[in-house]
Design a protein that fits this description.
286 residues, 12 strands, Porin, 2 domains, two-stranded antiparallel ribbon
Length: 286
């Protein structure tokens, strides 16, 4: 057969090959689109590290133990807070909307913790002569929270299904607790004063616990960012290390708390920015 006579046959075979391949791809796409999109349910466990914004300087209003009636004192902390880890546990759901996009929802218990430590000179009366005595204060504060979170999630299949997300959280401050320790330095004759008698107690160090709930909002909102990397254990199970960042966009302090801080020269009281590392064990239910 001559080359000229072969050209129509080659063109025909090429066209048929392209058409067949396109039909196969179309059939595969139709088959994929007819399958239900996956839904994963998960259990999340981890720990969150809380960084306290606007913590320099700040103070906390606590109750002085050596008074006839409850007496509020402002314990000053000129330097910033030390971030502390808190426990995190919850449940999650991952709804696939397409091959790339999905929605992740979470409900979890989480702790926001921080520590403040400072040594501040206080005036002490020695028979009418006032001298500076160093007072070291250490306060550890924890918020116990319940959070509802929702993220828009995108998966990068070229990066082994690495996924990122952005969304919002509504966080309920279920309870809070602080532990304060104050210790006097300086000569041993100095001690904390008994406000009832005006004389020294002989006590140079004490600890007290309490709550700041009267000055706190019950709820606050956060912007949330998320990143995770899935490891497929079986056809339906996967294990995904995740990291999230929570940035408050509303204050944890109510109007009473904010007014107290503003009256003492602090316009923007401290707020928790939390980075959480967790492991999510997920099961595909569909």
């Amino acid at each position: 057969m001559s080359l000229r006579r072969s050209i129509p046959l080659i063109v025909c075979l090429t066209f048929c090959s392209i058409t067949t391949a396109s039909a196969q791809r179309y059939a595969a796409n139709v088959l994929y689109s007819n399958q239900p999109l996956p839904i994963y349910l998960g259990i999340d466990v981890g720990s969150g590290l809380t960084f306290w914004q606007h913590a320099t300087p700040t103070y906390f209003a606590t109750t002085y133990p050596y008074a006839g009636t409850p007496d509020t004192i402002h314990v000053q902390f000129p330097s910033g807070a030390t971030p502390l880890f808190g426990f995190f546990a919850g449940i999650s759901a991952d709804f696939w909307l397409s091959e790339d996009w999905g929605i992740i929802t979470k409900m979890n218990y989480n702790e926001r913790r921080g520590e403040w430590n400072a040594t501040v000179n206080e005036l002490a009366d020695t028979n009418g002569v006032f001298v500076n005595v160093p007072v070291t204060s250490d306060l550890v504060w924890m918020l116990r929270c319940i959070s509802l979170e929702a993220y828009a999630r995108y998966s990068f299949h070229s990066l082994h299904d690495l996924y990122v997300g952005a969304g919002l959280a509504l966080t309920d401050i279920a309870s809070d607790h602080y532990d304060l320790t104050q210790t006097l330095g300086g000569p041993p004759q100095f001690s904390f004063m008994d406000f009832r008698s005006g004389s020294g107690t002989g006590i140079r160090s004490y600890g007290i616990g309490g709550s700041l709930s009267p000055e706190l909002h019950r709820f606050f909102g956060e912007f949330k960012l998320l990143a995770g990397f899935p490891f497929y254990i079986s056809a339906r199970w996967l294990l995904a290390p995740e990291i999230t960042l929570g940035i408050p966009f509303t204050s944890i302090w109510n109007s009473t708390g904010q007014a107290d801080y503003q009256a003492n020269g602090i316009s923007n009281p401290t707020s928790p920015l939390t980075v959480t590392g967790l492991i999510a064990l997920k099961y595909q239910i569909r």
